[in-house]
Amino acid sequence: YANATIDDHSHSSILTLTNHTSFSIGRAFYPSKIPTKSSFSSNPLPFSTSFIFSIAPFKHLLPGHGFVFLFSPFEGANGVSSAQHLGLFNLTNNGNPKNYVFGIEFDVFKNQEFNDINDNHVGLDVNSLTSLTSQDDIWVSGKHDEKFKELKLNNGENYQVWIEYSDSRVNVAMAIAGKRRPNRPLISELVNLSDVFLDEMFVGFCGATEQLIESHKILAWSFSNSNFSIGDGLVTTNLPSFGFVLGISFGIFIFVIGSAAMVFVVLLKRKRSKRMEEEGDIEDWELEYWPHRISYEDIYAATKAFSEQNIIEFGGMLKDVAMGVLYLHES
């Protein structure tokens, strides 16, 4: 639905939720509803799902926003919006208890209106993008899974996720694709889904961008109401990589120009320090961390008079946020 596509890639099919355009929305679901409540009671059925995803930036573009694995009472893209709403809700229905939506979000933008903990987190959502709980250190490591390690969600790496629900507890685990499943979950939370799940629901994925653009791809997916080891059957080797070429190119480029760049930075800092000392009224800490003082005129010019095309965040509890390019000229 919307901008989502199924792409053939080396004899395999890859779900691409968002494309290279701004304010893109993609939603994709299993073609038919699945039972989510027992026919003998109102208790939600257990489930186990695992998938492999990749979030990759586009060259010369700032990345954002994220995607969600979700249960929804309807298909299609009606009633949802792009940007910070991730193709899951919109400004008016976010937080409505009659949404009947459960999701696990993978978010790379910090929205204060949703109390996001940072710009790189996994969150558990029930009818709202204000997560019930979230985690930013998103990989359990160590011999006995004794510590969390931060992973960058949108670096183009392929990650495998395991999500399980049983006895009112949601467990979410995550690792680099091909690595073993951690014994210790990233998120483990008691959640009563009796009032969220209907008898049958659609299950799938949604994602969105705004002027911050990145690709959101699902490389493999499994789901079951009974087999909690179904994720072990996903193929995790020889998968396409969506961040490798860009990373190698930049690595070579940085290696070649590294020495020249270091010399340039040293000279530039010396020139800046000398100029700021001559201007006076500069505190010592500012000499090292220049610049901290930018005139309104410079900001106005950098954002092209706060033009609409430069707005990267809209409304909510915040004012609009504009993106601009500031050109520094050395005298």
Indicate the topology.
Blueprint: E1 5-9, E2 12-16, E3 25-29, E4 34-35, E5 47-57, E6 66-72, E7 102-107, E8 121-126, E9 133-135, E10 139-141, E11 147-149, E12 158-166, E13 169-176, E14 187-190, E15 200-208, E16 214-224, H1 244-279, H2 284-288, H3 296-302, E17 311-313, E18 321-322
Antiparallel strand pairs: 1-2, 2-16, 3-15, 4-15, 5-12, 5-16, 6-7, 6-15, 7-8, 8-9, 10-11, 12-13, 13-14, 17-18
Domain Legume lectin: 11-227
Keywords: Kinase, Lectin, Membrane, Receptor, Transferase, Transmembrane, Transmembrane helix
Family: Belongs to the leguminous lectin family.
In this structure, how is the largest beta sheet organized?
7 strands, antiparallel
Order of helices and strands: EEEEEEEEEEEEEEEEHHHEE
Number of helices: 3
* Proportion in β-strands: 25-35%
Shape: globular
**What is the helical fraction, as a range of percent?**
10-25%
- Class derived from helix and strand content: alpha+beta
Distance between the termini: 53 Å
Rg, Cα atoms, Å: 23 Å
The count of domains is: 3
Mean pLDDT: 80
| Biggest sheet, spatial arrangement of strands | 1-2-16-5-12-13-14
What's the CATH class label of the largest domain?
A: Mainly Beta
If classified by CATH, what would the architecture of the largest domain be? Sandwich
Low-pLDDT residue intervals, each spanning 5 or more residues:
244-280, 315-319
Number of strand elements:
18
What name does CATH use for the topology of the largest domain?
Answer: Jelly Rolls
